[in-house]
Amino acid sequence: MIAKAKTFLDDVRAELHRVTWPARKETVSTTWVVLFIIIVIAFYLFGCDLVINKILKAFLR
Cα–Cα distance between 23 and 30 in angstroms, integer? Predict the structure, then answer.
């Protein structure tokens, strides 16, 4: 069992050396895009929540 675990970890290490990691600039720019999209979606959901809330309040009165 220990031999299988060692083989697995050796394979993982070898595979990680073959990975093409993104450059710092690419990572930062992608992070900004993701944050922007999250903020846009948050405002959209907030607006939907306000509209649904007003409709339900008007309906329940």
Answer: 11
Confirm if 42 and 34 have CB atoms less than 8 A apart: no
Between CA 49 and CA 18 the distance in angstroms is: 46
Q: What is the largest CA-CA distance in the chain?
A: 70
Q: How far is C-alpha 41 from the chain's CA centre? A: 13
Range of the domain at 24: 2-60
Q: How many domains does the chain fold into? A: 1
Cβ pair 19, 11 in contact under 8 A? no
Which tens digits make up the pLDDT trace of 11-55?
999 999 999 999 999 999 999 999 999 999 999 999 999 999 999
